[in-house]
């Protein structure tokens, strides 16, 4: 197990009239190499939860343990946790501050003591992962870039530190469809080949089906559903109660079922639905159009 949250509670503005409970006795275990999507209504506690994973927030009650280290531990141990858990915020402009793209992406590795030769390799590699041209963009100001490019720079600045867990809050905000596909395909590769653990907060169920294997649904600071992505999204009646709608593909599969067309209700992607319809209509039609000798009638 890589990360563990036990009975974690957290409130903002404690002791004031504006006190708000953001997490309420949350229990969560994350194994190394998992790919997890966190969903729920705005304000349900998603962003607060992920900020506990590298000690940006410390629980009022309960404990958070990452790779054997309690995040309440100060000093060197907590720094080690933050090396292992990289967090990309929802708004990249709040995370970017250096004068060039190179310096921005290099900032973390420099503070880790990476050599100059290795530094350039890491920056070039991280930019390649997120689809940014090193020769064209490394010397430019990140504030001259588009919102989508800034998002990529923010992700690259964390990847350059080679974290064991990458936590992303709305990672595809500002990205065009091709940019989304590229980022997610590269993250899938990193998980497959390097064992990267992924935790992704998103309002886009269509994005999550391409990368997550497990879904956590939150509501009012609690985890209300937690399971395999097909199991969770095949319960539309349950998840809509918490402000979550399954992917369009799953919704369409249920709509077809309601109209008497028997399709698998655990479908997630358009490709899966297309194959299901092909199997149900084309192949069955061909079978019905042949006699017992296999000849068309």
Describe this entry's structure for a reader.
This protein has two domains: 243 residues, 3-Layer(aba) Sandwich (Rossmann fold); 51 residues, no CATH class. The chain contains twelve helices and ten strands. The chain has a six-stranded mixed sheet with strand order 6-7-8-3-9-10. Helix 3 runs parallel beside helix 6 and helix 4 crosses helix 6. The chain starts with a strand and ends in a 9-residue tail after the last helix.
User: What is the CATH topology of the largest domain?
Assistant: Rossmann fold
Percent in helix: 25-40%
Class from helix and strand fractions = alpha/beta
- Count of separate DSSP helical elements: 12
What is the count of β-strands?
10
Return the domain count.
2
| Overall CATH class of the largest domain | Alpha Beta
Please give the order of strands in the largest beta sheet: 6-7-8-3-9-10
Under CATH, the homologous superfamily of the largest domain reads: P-loop containing nucleotide triphosphate hydrolases
Order of helices and strands: EEEHEEHEHHHHEHEHEEHHHH
* Biggest pleated-sheet summary: 6 strands, mixed
Using the alpha-carbon principal axes, give the shape: globular
Q: What is the alpha-carbon Rg in Å?
A: 22 Å
Distance, first to last CA: 60 Å
């Amino acid at each position: 197990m890589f990360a563990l949250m036990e009975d974690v509670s957290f409130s903002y503005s404690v002791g004031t009239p504006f006190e708000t409970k953001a997490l309420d006795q949350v229990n969560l275990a994350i194994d190394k190499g998992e790919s997890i999507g966190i969903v729920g209504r705005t304000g349900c506690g998603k962003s607060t939860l992920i900020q506990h994973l590298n000690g940006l927030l410390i629980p009022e009650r309960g404990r958070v343990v990452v790779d054997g280290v309690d995040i309440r531990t100060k000093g060197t141990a907590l720094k080690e946790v933050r090396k292992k858990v990289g967090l990309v915020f929802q708004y990249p402009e709040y995370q970017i501050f250096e004068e060039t793209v190179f310096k921005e992406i290099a900032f973390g590795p420099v503070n880790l003591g990476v050599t100059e030769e290795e530094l350039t390799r890491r920056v070039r590699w991280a930019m390649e992962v997120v689809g940014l041209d090193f020769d064209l963009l490394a010397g430019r100001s990140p504030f001259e870039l588009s919102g989508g490019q800034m998002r990529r720079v923010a992700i690259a600045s964390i990847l350059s530190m080679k974290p064991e867990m990458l936590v992303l809050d709305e990672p595809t905000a500002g990205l065009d469809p091709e940019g989304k596909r590229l980022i997610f395909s590269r993250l899938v590769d990193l998980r497959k080949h390097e064992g990267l653990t992924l935790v992704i907060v998103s309002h886009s169920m269509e994005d999550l089906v391409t990368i997550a294997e497990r879904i956590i649904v939150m509501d009012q600071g609690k985890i209300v559903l937690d399971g395999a992505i097909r199991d969770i999204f095949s319960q539309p009646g349950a998840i809509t109660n918490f402000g979550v709608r399954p992917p369009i593909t799953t919704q369409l599969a249920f709509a077809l079922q309601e109209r008497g067309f028997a399709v698998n209700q655990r479908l997630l992607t358009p490709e899966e639905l297309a194959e299901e319809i092909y199997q149900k209509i084309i192949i069955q039609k061909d079978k019905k159009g042949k006699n017992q000798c296999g000849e068309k009638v």
